[in-house]
Amino acid sequence: MKNAIKWFAANMAFVGALLVSVGFCVAGKSPALQSIGVVIIFLHPFFNGGIKTGLRNLYLNQYALAMAIYYVLILLSGFHGGNLHLYSQLVVMQLPLIFIPFGLSGSNALKPGQKNIIFATLILAVALTGVASFLNYIINFKEIQEQITHSKPIPIINMASFHIYYSVLLAFSAGILQWYIFFNDIQKAIYKRMAWTLLIIIVILLHTISARTGLFCFYAEAGVSILWLIFKAKKIVLGLGIAIGLGIMAFAATKIIPSEKNRFENTQLDLHKYESGDNINHYSLSMRFEALKVGWAVFERNMITGVGPANVITAMDAQYTLENSELITVNRIKPHNEFLYALVSMGIIGFVALCFMIFLPVFNGTVFRNYIFLMFIVVCIASFQVEYLLERQVGITFFCLFYILVGMDDKQLKGKQL
Cβ-count burial of 254 within 10 angstroms (0-12 exposed, 13-18 middle, 19+ buried)? Predict the structure, then answer.
């Protein structure tokens, strides 16, 4: 018992990261696993070097500092006033921006091999959730196909309304597996077969049950991966072969796979509704276009500091009313674009802080040496175009955990190959 407690104390960051990775896939049932995992990560330095060491590691980690700056701006947004109850909820929800880098920034946060285990745990949790959801889709095929024609998502087991976030997890998992298969030189044949099997399963899930956001992220990272293969790894034939294969797969998916065919046709109808000026209520894509237009108008009235994250809903609703929008109340959504959301909520100041945080690995050149970090940034930037990823617990926790984790120095960890 004493040895177990001692091991737990020495590996709190690792245990917390595992809980968070599994917690993503049960977010629709309960956010508890994510919250508990984040707290355990935060407590790691208290039992391994002390709080001074934790603060020093936080200060020396440039990514942690970028996250801290963004969190401070969220705190300062309270001066806007307005809905203080919602403000307090947002401040708590965004705590991973501080808690995760505080716990993971130290050189003793993870031991050799633990980073690989965290990645494997995420991939397995995502794959198992996807397989269960795929089987549910097959069992309830007619009913779900009908839902798709009305812009409804395919239900994801234990994820409830987090289907978009699940699709982002799918895309990132595919990026990790690409690293292990094409670049990491897996030494054991059984691990290589497992990696290929999981990648095939995830690609199938992306083309059957994933939201459009997941496909967008997947093809964005696949495009960048092809460029890496051709120009960085000098594997020209492999890169061109994958490019041709992906092109054929994308075209065939919209013609053969029922869910993709329905989703493609629904997207065309959705765009036609918006372009023709028809009633766009309950049409997902058209409602998002309307939200982007309204959100930009809100930003133009509050350009420097925004309206405050806690006041976005109120400000957007007022602008919808001002523009005599035909959208009914339930369809008056917030802008599904993280960059615009930052402009609306925290103005140009918040937008600059967000861009500094997300593009820092590009500015310092890390993504050109760290393939998984590059895939992570590509997935985030792609998802930011169509979703306010950082404004819900699943999204902010995902971003904070893997922003710090994939940015870790592998030489420092001396990670073992598979």
Answer: middle
Pairwise CA distance, residues 411 & 320, whole Å: 52
- The CA-CA-CA angle for residues 222, 228, 233, to 5°, reads 135
Q: What is the pLDDT of residue 254?
A: 84
Alpha-carbon span 264 to 392, nearest angstrom? 27
Q: Among all chains, which residue has been given the structure tokens 């350009």?
A: 303
- Of 359, 333, 243, the closest CA to residue 280 belongs to 333
CB atoms within 10 A of CB 320: 21
Q: Answer yes or no: is pLDDT of 413 > 60.
A: no
Residues 269-293: b if buried by 16+ CB within 10 A, e if exposed: ebeebbeeeeebeebbbbbbbbbee
pLDDT per residue over 62-110, tens digit each? 999 999 999 999 999 988 888 889 999 999 999 999 999 999 987 779 9
- CB–CB of 68/58 below 8 Å? yes
Rounded CA separation 69/238 (Å) = 42
- Quick one: which of 36, 54, 125, 101 has its CA closest to 406? 101
Model confidence pLDDT, tens digit, residues 136-179: 999 999 888 888 777 778 899 988 778 899 999 999 999 999 99
pLDDT average, residue stretch 305-312: 94
d(CA 254, CA 307): 41
In the chain, the percentage of residues whose pLDDT exceeds 90 is 68
- pTM of this prediction exceeds 0.85: yes
Q: Which amino acid is at 207?
A: H
* CA gap 176, 257 in Å, rounded: 25
247 burial type by CB count under 10 A (0-12 exposed, 13-18 middle, 19+ buried): exposed
Pure H helices in 140-162: 141-148
Residue that the structure tokens 């234990």 belong to: 158
pLDDT for 412 equals 41
CA-to-CA distance for 196 and 247, rounded, in angstroms? 20
CA dihedral sign, ordered 243, 245, 250, 252: positive
391 and 310 in contact (C-beta within 8 Å)?
A: no
Q: How far is the C-alpha of 300 from the C-alpha of 347, rounded, in Å?
A: 9
CB of 170 closer than 8 Å to CB of 202: yes
Q: DSSP secondary-structure letter at 335?
A: P
